[in-house]
Amino acid sequence: MKFVAFERAKQGTGASRRLRITGRTPGIVYGGTGEPTLVELDHNALFHAIKKEAFHASVLEMELGGKTEKVLLRDLQMHPFKQLILHIDFQRVDARTRLTMKVPLHYSGEEESPAVKTENCLVNHVMTELSISCLPKDLPEFIAVDLSGLKKGAPLHLKDITLPKGVKFVAKGQENPVLVSVSSVSEEAEADAAAAAAAAAPVDPKAAKAAAAKEAKAGAKADAAKPAAKK
After folding, report:
1. Can you tell me the distance from the alpha carbon of 150 to that of 177, in angstroms, rounded to the nearest whole number?
2. DSSP states along 197-221
């Protein structure tokens, strides 16, 4: 995926604010053998680009000053409530250096799996992306995961799938995390739903008053039946 950037001479809060007013987004390119470079990008073009998954999880081609560099998106700062990109960071890519990136998982086939089709199970995507390590040439835009073989009571773990060639999972406390869980719709869950529905139903004032009177009458009879205390 390609995009165009322009060098900028000024930096600082005031300069960045003035840049945004003109429809540009300030940024920086760092890493590799070169020095950090201050850049600016057309905000509208950039705003459309960040909506594409490939812009976040693939090696990008940045045209700058008539030359093309391979970079990765490393940070994106958005305005708290406006549709405005405040700042963007890119990292230069070295073809011989391994990258650590988060790559999205694309699930498919769950509707055809025995768990859903014949066993009436609920499928939950526990993880939607993976942290991986690989060389730039091996970086996938996404990792496809086929769920057509899911069965009741058998969650899908990382070791149940095959990662693309040259790609390794970066473990962060979990060597074999659960990617997808499978659970059945139990009678207990249905009972809980019925109880919740009953609790939410409107109360009949007459029925509630009659129930309270009956409870009070039963309490009075119990008190009368108790033996008198000795003096």
Report:
1. 16
2. HHHHSPP-HHHHHHHHHHHHHHHHH
Residue type, 189: A
For residue 124 the two structure tokens come to: 């939950």
Cβ neighbors of 173 (< 8 A, separation 6 or more) are none
| Cα separations in angstroms, 196 against 148, 166, 184, 199 | 34, 51, 20, 5
**Global pTM?**
0.71
Going from the C-alpha of 101 to that of each of 3, 8, 131, 133, 163, the distances in angstroms are: 20, 28, 6, 6, 14
pLDDT tens, position by position, 116-129: 999 888 999 999 99
* Structural element, H or E, at residue 194: helix 187-200
Q: pLDDT per residue over 204-215, tens digit each?
A: 566 656 666 666
